[in-house]
Amino acid sequence: MSGPDEPESAVGADAFTRAGAGLEVAVVGAGAIGATAAYDLSRGGADVTLYDRDDVASDASGRAAGICYDAFADGLDAEIASDAIERFRALSGDDTFPFVECPYVWLARDGDADGADAIRQQVRRMQDHEIVAFEMDGETLADRFSSLRTDDVDVAGIAGAAGYTDPAQYTACLAAAATGAGATLETDTPVEVRTDPARVIHPDGTTREVDAVLVAAGARTGDLLDDAGIPLAVKPYRVQALVAAGDLAEPMCYDATGDFYLRPHAGGILAGDGVEHREADPDTYDRAADPTFADDLLERVTHRVPALERTDDDGLERAWAGLCTATPDRDPLVGRVADGLYVATGFQGHGFMRAPAIGERIAEEILGGSGIDAFDPLRFDGDEAFEIVEGMALDRE
Ligand SMILES: Cc1cc2nc3c(=O)[nH]c(=O)nc-3n(C[C@H](O)[C@H](O)[C@H](O)COP(=O)(O)OP(=O)(O)OC[C@H]3O[C@@H](n4cnc5c(N)ncnc54)[C@H](O)[C@@H]3O)c2cc1C
Predict the structure, then answer these.
(1) Average pLDDT in the 282-290 region?
(2) What is the CA radius of gyration of the chain?
(3) Residue 17: per-residue pLDDT
(4) Whose CA is nearest to atom 2 of ligand 1?
(5) Tens digits of per-residue pLDDT, 188-200?
(6) What are phi and psi of 67, to 5 degrees?
(7) What are phi and psi for residue 330, nearest 5 degrees?
């Protein structure tokens, strides 16, 4: 697979005019965030080593559903997500990774008044931020998407700048592009990080001092930072997804009342839910789906998309679990935590869709630009007690 051939003018190229020449940077974690950041840092002239304890996309980014949209009500979130969608569009192609345009619908059912109010408010706020989003009732939704059952829908939001991709392919492509731009990829290399001075410790005990370390180690970021003496307010939590046979062209849909999502997939449909509201251990969590997960979820999915009704039990292709990361305010932790030490984690199940923009912004910060103030990891002490709330969940009054 080749890397993307990104035009210099495509995304923030000005920030990358070799600003990092001579800067030595270690990126820990070759998921979507680390691979993107490694690509942008390398394009900026930095001497980058991209480490992974296992392989490229071997953790959350290889397990994600690949749903991408810019339907965020908050202005900053909307801006970042819009940039990410633009970049998915710019980088995707036959030689890189697919990006399939597909509208995103999220809905509340009759009787879920709080959910319906939350969706109405979200759509208004999105429109304020120039996000292409509309409100529809069940009847209008039925006219637009005949595949969806709509007789129980009170209100739905529809966002146009949305689509899906193969997250593992995106990540592999960006990691390849990073090496193409000069980065060194070290797989099967679990490193530790230390600060003052910023450095990584290799599995054989050797230490490498660098100008900057970016820890984008997904669910393991908190533990890695803890070992470096920097507590982070982040908790890993387990979620599940499946692929089943079926025929669905569009839309992607999040049923906020039923608390599940689905999207078209080459093998049929991809659907997910099953968030566990307790902290998971990255070393010991169960990577297989729970025994009852598929049956429970497929019952709810076929309620929403009746044509997916299974005639036998063979429809399930695969089901799995992976880890997401939660923070006290549901905003990510992205930026500097100590001299030469940076993190990017806490994406609440929305890390893949934001990776093209977050990777770019954290690279910019490491190369001397400004960070994202609202995502400053040091806004928390790191010892906060907080509940794990699923990322797609509506803010209900
Ligand atoms: C089932 C499921 C469905 C999801 N669906 C979506 C979706 O549709 N859209 C969306 O936006 N998000 C989705 N997510 C969330 C998304 O997967 C994550 O937010 C995103 O992939 C995080 O990327 P990352 O690069 O931060 O972490 P990861 O992809 O987890 O990458 C971290 C990497 O760091 C490596 N690593 C860890 N420790 C070390 C170490 N000590 N040394 C070296 N390397 C190390 C790991 O091996 C791993 O490869 C989903 C997640 C799951 C589990």
Answers:
(1) 97
(2) 21
(3) 53
(4) 64
(5) 999 999 999 999 9
(6) -80, 130
(7) 65, 10
